[in-house]
Structures are given as C-alpha cells and as structure tokens.
Specification:
It is a single chain. This protein has 246 residues and is mainly alpha-helical. It has a domain of 172 residues: Actin interacting protein 3, C-terminal domain (Methane Monooxygenase Hydroxylase, Chain G, domain 1). Helices cover 80% and strands 0% of the residues. Helix 3 packs antiparallel against helix 4. The N terminus is likely disordered. It comes from Ladona fulva (Scarce chaser dragonfly). This is Actin interacting protein 3-like C-terminal domain-containing protein. InterPro entries: AIP3-like_C, SRCIN1. It holds the Pfam family AIP3. Keywords: Coiled coil.
Length: 246
C-alpha cells in the first residue's frame, strides 16, 4: 500500500552502543571481571581424559599435571612388565645353568668313579698277589722250621747214641740227614731272595691301607659339614629362584 502524504516513515532504531554512556555504565564496564583464559587445544585422547575428569572441575594446569602423571604410571607399568619378562628369562637361564652344571658334575663323578674303580682293582690285584706270596712264604717257612727241628732232634739223638752207647753210625741215615739239610739250606736261600720283594709289596699295601684309613677318617669327619653346606646352598638357590619367579 502506498504511503500517503500525511503518513511519516518510521525512524530507524538507535543501537545502544552508539548512545553515549552514562557515568554509572562507565563505572560498571570498568569493574566487569576479565573472561577466563581459553583452555589449551585438546587432542582426541586428551579430550577423553578431560571427559574422565569432567566432574573434578580441574584447571588446565592441574589437568596437564594429571596427564603427565598418567603417562608416567603407564611407563612404570610397562617397565614392570619388562622387568617381569627379564626376571622370567633370567630364572630360565639360571635353571639351564644349574642343569648343565649338574650334568657336568655327574659326568665328572662317573669318570672319576671309573678311574677310582680301576685304581681300586689294581690295588686289589696287588693285594691279592702279595697275599698269595705271603701265604706261600709262610707255608715254606713253617715247613723249613719243621724240617730243621726234626733234623736237629735226629742229629742230637744220633750224637747221643754215639757218645753214650758207643753205637756205630749208619752212613745211610747220615746221608739222608745231609740231604734234608741241603734241601733246607736251599729253601733258606730261596726265601731270603724272595723276602725283599714280599717286604716291598706288604709295605706298599700297608701304606695304601693307611692312606685309606686316613681318607675314611677325614671323610667321616668332614662329610657332615659338607652336607650342611650343600643344604644351605640349596636353600639359598631356592630362595633366589622363588624371588625371580615373582
């Protein structure tokens, strides 16, 4: 509809910002508090963390500190997992080392046992040979002493008969006694040659027997302490393995 001549167009509205401020408005504007600082731009992960702490009303500084602590805790958990894996690997290595050492000790004991058995067999063979020689020597010595005793008795009896009874000497008996005496003399010479060898063999056996006695006495004296020491070492290794398993 066209405007008539008597109708005036409406005046445009005057913005309040263009109007001059009164003294009270100027005073309120000066005392108006400054707006809070804008928060640091957040990444998606930070936004999620921010969402976790939304009920705590944290300042940006406190939030950043909490995020740093959270990262440190995560790093510590990872380090603990790494240490656990390392301890498990070390425990496995310790078990393998103990197993290898046990195998080596067992092999050494078996080798040493075979060597000791061979030496013991040699000693037993020497002892048996010396015992046989000793037994033969003693038997021949007993026979020699018996022959000499009988010969001495016969000769003394014959001498008494010749002196006291004035009997004639039977040459056949004298020859038999001379034969026995010759045989006894040869036996004495043979035993005298054999005795040094028998003596050395018996001394060697006595020496080995004395060494065996000393070893056995030392074994009986030291073995209880060795057992206790081995038990203490086993307990220590058990504690170490239990600690490593944790």
């Amino acid at each position: 509809m066209a405007c008539t001549a008597d109708t005036k167009p409406p005046k445009p509205a005057i913005k309040s910002s263009t109007l001059p401020r009164t003294s009270s408005q100027e005073r309120d504007h000066r005392h108006k508090p400054a707006p809070p600082p804008k928060p640091v731009s957040l990444s998606p992960g930070q936004y999620e963390g921010r969402h976790i702490y939304r009920d705590l009303h944290l300042t940006p500084e406190m939030y950043n500190q909490l995020r740093i602590l959270q990262r440190k805790a995560k790093d510590l958990r990872q380090e603990v997992r790494n240490l656990r894996r390392m301890s498990q690997a070390q425990a496995h290595s310790v078990r393998e080392t103990i197993r290898d050492t046990f195998i080596k000790i067992r092999a050494m004991l078996l080798t040493g046992g075979e060597t000791w058995l061979h030496q013991q067999q040699l000693i037993d063979a020497d002892r048996l040979r010396t015992s046989r020689e000793e037994e033969l020597y003693k038997q021949e010595m007993l026979r020699l002493e018996k022959d000499l005793t009988e010969l001495e008795s016969t000769v003394e009896e014959l001498r008494g008969n010749v002196i006291n009874r004035k009997t004639r000497v039977n040459m056949s008996d004298v020859e038999n006694m001379a034969l026995i005496l010759s045989k006894s003399s040869k036996t004495v010479a043979d035993l005298k040659v054999r005795f040094p060898s028998l003596q050395d063999g018996m001394k060697s056996i006595l020496s080995s027997e004395m060494e065996k006695v000393v070893r056995e006495e030392k074994f009986l004296k030291e073995e209880p302490e060795r057992l206790e020491n081995a038990l203490r070492r086993c307990k220590k290794l058990t504690g170490t393995l239990v600690t490593l398993k944790r």
